[in-house]
């Protein structure tokens, strides 16, 4: 070794101290700003995966960072045992953006937990047990959320999952009707199936489900962990498709990266919840609520969902190129259906400093960018993709 100390190999350090989680990108991150992240070598990447669909407003949105700094100096934590003004303000903001008159919020910590609580409320409200869920769905890794996840390999080898879940094909109203029997507490689905490949609902499907649930006395539950808060070109998928679910769940971008989530109960479900039914030590903590209030404030101030809708149109118009068979999804939850496996294309894009995602469908390259990107960022992707796909197959 010369005079300088050797740089720490942080990937090796992670491997030494952490259990493996997701397969990782080939770099080590130092910081993020807007739609860009910067690695420890100083190289920057256009993050069209938004830190796992979380950075809705980009990385480190200044209004959220300022709110966090303020809140951290005032009160870092107290549970819902104590009333805290910022919690009421955060809940009001979520109801006003995504709910209806009489809606109420339960704050928790992750998408899986929000779905667990939505199913809990549906079961308590109806006094029934069965949840109908869709094949191809992903709802999280806790036991209840996983039991309702319709991608079998996630459930494999995990004993003790609930058996009171029935799966039906996504988009099939006849199958839904048959499954919504007298013991059906709720129908849980992602209005646009993300991990499956950004699959939108067939026309009339969500409206049909809403009618079927009403007839069966079951609750319609939208998992809006990915579709919510502007991503699909409206404040929620419920609004984008003009359907009123009984329960909605939000997470991912709700706190711009501060871990938090919410179960939003419509009037009927809300009326059934009693003190003590729901609880969480950290859910609704002041730091999370400060992040939520600031995030929702920015979403409303900038009407960022309109940018998502506009860029969807632009991508659909400009991504007609050899190698791209179709663009599917809604808003900025999009899947580019390729004529070849998506993983090598994703890797080639990383080589050109652009981050994207893949999906269960191996030919789908998934885009979940921050909603604040503009035409220039879309053009960077288009140009890189056209080079990669136009060359010899990746
Ligand atoms: C649609 C959907 N629901 C639920 C979850 C689970 O969220 P979390 O990882 O925060 O538990 C995810 C995570 O990717 C998701 O995409």
Tell me what you see in this structure.
With 394 residues, the chain is an alpha/beta fold. The protein folds into 2 domains: 22-60 and 304-339 and 349-390, Aspartate Aminotransferase, domain 1, CATH 3.90.1150.10; 62-302, 3-Layer(aba) Sandwich (Aspartate Aminotransferase, domain 2). It is 39% helix and 17% strand. The protein has 15 helices and 14 strands. The protein has helices at residues 10-17, 50-53, 62-74, 85-98, 111-126, 143-147, 152-155, 173-179, 205-216, 237-241, 267-272, 286-302, 304-318, 342-351, 375-390; strands at residues 29-33, 36-39, 44-47, 104-108, 130-134, 165-168, 184-189, 219-223, 247-250, 261-265, 324-330, 333-338, 354-355, 364-367. The strands form 3 sheets. Strands 4-10-9-8-7-5-6 form a 7-stranded mixed beta sheet, sandwiched between helices. β7 (184-189), α9 (205-216) and β8 (219-223) form a beta-alpha-beta unit. α4 (85-98) runs parallel beside α12. The longest helix has 17 residues, at 286-302. The chain starts with 9 loop residues before the first helix and ends with a helix. The model has no long low-confidence stretch (mean pLDDT 96). Pyridoxal-5'-phosphate binds at residues 110-112, 115, 138-140, 190, 194, 223, 225-226, 251.
């Amino acid at each position: 070794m010369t005079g300088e100390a050797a740089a720490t190999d942080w990937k090796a350090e992670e491997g030494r101290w952490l259990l493996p989680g997701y397969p990782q990108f080939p770099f080590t991150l130092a910081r993020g700003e807007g739609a860009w992240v910067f690695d420890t070598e100083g190289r920057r990447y256009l993050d069209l995966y938004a830190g796992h669909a979380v950075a809705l407003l980009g990385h480190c949105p200044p209004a959220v960072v300022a709110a966090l700094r303020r809140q951290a100096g005032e009160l870092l934590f107290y549970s819902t045992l104590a009333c805290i003004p910022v919690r009421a303000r955060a809940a009001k903001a979520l109801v006003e953006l995504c709910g209806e008159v009489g809606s109420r919020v339960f704050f928790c910590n992750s998408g899986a937990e929000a779905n667990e609580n939505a199913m809990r409320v549906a079961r308590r409200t109806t006094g029934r047990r069965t949840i109908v869920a869709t094949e191809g769905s992903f709802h999280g890794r806790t036991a209840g959320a996983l039991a309702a996840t319709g991608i079998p390999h996630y459930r494999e080898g995990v004993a003790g999952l609930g058996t009171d879940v029935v799966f039906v094909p996504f988009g099939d109203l006849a199958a839904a009707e048959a499954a919504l029997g007298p013991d059906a507490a709720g129908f849980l689905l992602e209005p646009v199936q993300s991990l499956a490949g950004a699959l939108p609902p067939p026309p009339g499907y969500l409206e049909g489900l809403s009618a079927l649930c009403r007839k069966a006395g079951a609750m319609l539950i939208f998992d809006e962990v990915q579709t919510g808060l502007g991503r699909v070109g409206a404040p929620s998928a419920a609004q984008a498709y003009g359907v009123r679910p009984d329960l909605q769940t939000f997470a991912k971008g709700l706190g711009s990266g501060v871990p938090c989530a919410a179960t939003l109960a419509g009037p009927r479900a809300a009326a059934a919840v009693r003190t003590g039914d729901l609880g969480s030590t950290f859910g609704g903590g002041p730091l999370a609520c400060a992040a939520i209030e600031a995030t929702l404030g920015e979403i409303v101030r900038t009407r960022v969902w309109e940018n998502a809708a506009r860029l969807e149109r632009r991508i659909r118009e400009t991504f007609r190129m050899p190698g791209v068979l179709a663009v599917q999804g809604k808003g900025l939850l999009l899947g580019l259906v390729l004529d070849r496996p998506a993983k090598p294309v994703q890797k080639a894009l990383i080589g050109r400093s652009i981050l994207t995602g893949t999906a269960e469908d191996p030919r789908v390259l998934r885009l979940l960018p921050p909603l604040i990107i503009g035409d220039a960022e879309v053009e960077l992707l288009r140009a890189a993709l056209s080079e990669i796909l136009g060359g010899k197959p990746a």
